[in-house]
Amino acid sequence: MDTPSHTALGREILSTVRSDLYLSLRFLDAALSGLTFEMSPLIPSSATDGERLYFQPHYLFRSYDENPVLVNRAFLHNLLHCLFSHLYLEPARNRELWDLCCDICTESILDSLDVPCLRKIPSSLREETYRFIQDNQITLLTPGRLCRLLEGSVFYQRNMLLLEQEFCIDSHVFWPRSREDGPQKQEQQKRVQEKWQELGDKTRTSMETFERRAGTEAGSLLRTLKLSRGNPMKYDGFLRRFAAWQDCLRINDEEFDTAYYTLGMDLYGSIPLIEPLEYKEEKKIRSLVIAIDTSGSVRGTPVRRFLSETMAILGNSKRFFTHMKIRLLQFDTVIQEELLITSFDEFAAQADAFAIRGGGGTDYRCVFRYLDSLRESKVQEAVQGIMILTDGYGTFPAAPPACPAAFLLADFLKEDCGSAREPAFDSVPDWAIRLRIDEPESIIGKELSIT
């Protein structure tokens, strides 16, 4: 059979597969059209780059002849990688483990979909893997969370090769490698990523519209879409929520009319009719409170890493006025430590030398009582916002504070002690901003799930 015939037959098979998936999973109608089909004899099975679904012809023909369910699952496996933005996440140090974790996350979704065209009897290893994950109290998988669980675990060391054979359905050879690509390629990848963000939002909306039906068939898929998409926003954009307008001593070129200036110079020589304003209204942050939950088994290493990354973003984003005030708090049921930071050099020093103080329960009310005491004593001007780094387990105040409050829910806080308990996202009050961080490094230039 010649190459054109291989291509035509492969595309016909995949078009049939796409129709079968559409009939069973109507909420994926927009996403199913997001990939075109292209033959690639150099890959072992299938692959995607976010634009095309590549297929190996002999693998496709043999699998479809033996069991069409295998092709259905491979198609949807690649599609979910795109919907969950696995192609664009920054991988862990161990690339092989990271790829495996992306595949396990995707396959766990497929195994949870109770539809005939995807139904496959799970192997004993697959059941053992899911049981190991559940025993570690992880109910919603992400690649970063799974990497931390498997890395160094006896289960992974014992079953490494078997896990790759069981879960690695596709090839990731076409996934973008942003550090290796040129500016033009990166711009193209950005457009493709934005396309999948839009398709992910449409899929989530479609599932929520038919939640009674789709929620029972694909509850884990909907939850993962919410986690991966949320309300996408850059971290720099998130910080704007704590900014306020204020006049600054700075030349205002935007409100300077060059026509009057030129006219004056022409008519009167060196006497302009208008000069640039010497002040400009800017929206920046002057005062901010960062509170660290140091209860229980929280360790200092991930917190120091988070503070360093946050300090880098605050410094590079030019979000602060010249005279800045950041109050860094440690708390459990009471305020354990209070530090006043007035420069980025101080912030960097505190991030490097951060040491945990506390270890009791968690009571967020002590932080808000502290804010009230600041306001009443007028020690500091009005705080523009408060960010609380926590896992979400604790006692919340009944009423909202006078300033915006954001709970940064991070499951990496307890990584050093082996706890894999998920952040209590739903327990945060409706009046607060909820921001979920899967990795301390993921806040730089990445989109976060904010509600």
Describe the SSE topology.
Layout: H1 3-24, H2 29-32, E1 36-39, E2 46-48, E3 52-55, H3 57-66, H4 68-83, H5 95-112, H6 124-135, H7 143-150, H8 154-167, H9 183-209, H10 211-217, H11 219-229, E4 233-234, H12 235-239, E5 244-252, H13 258-268, E6 277-293, H14 300-317, E7 320-331, E8 335-341, H15 344-352, H16 365-377, E9 386-390, E10 405-410, E11 433-437, E12 447-450
Parallel strand pairs: 1-3, 6-7, 6-9, 9-10, 10-11
Antiparallel strand pairs: 2-3, 4-12, 5-6, 7-8, 11-12
Helix pairs in contact: 1-3, 1-4, 3-4, 4-5, 5-7, 9-10, 9-11, 14-15
Distance, first to last CA: 54 Å
Roughly what percent helix? Answer: 40-55%
Overall structural class, as computed from helix and strand content, comes to: alpha/beta
Shape: globular
Sketch the topology as an H/E string, one letter per element.
HHEEEHHHHHHHHHEHEHEHEEHHEEEE
Average pLDDT score: 77
Write down the Rg: 26 Å
Give an account of the 3D structure:
The protein is of the alpha/beta class. Helix content is 45%, strand content 17%. It contains 16 helices and 12 strands. It has helices at residues 3-24, 29-32, 57-66, 68-83, 95-112, 124-135, 143-150, 154-167, 183-209, 211-217, 219-229, 235-239, 258-268, 300-317, 344-352, 365-377; strands at residues 36-39, 46-48, 52-55, 233-234, 244-252, 277-293, 320-331, 335-341, 386-390, 405-410, 433-437, 447-450. Strands 4, 5, 6, 7, 8, 9, 10, 11 and 12 form a 9-stranded mixed β-sheet that branches. A 3-stranded mixed β-sheet has the order 1-3-2. α4 (68-83) packs across α5 (95-112) and α9 packs across α11. The termini are far apart.
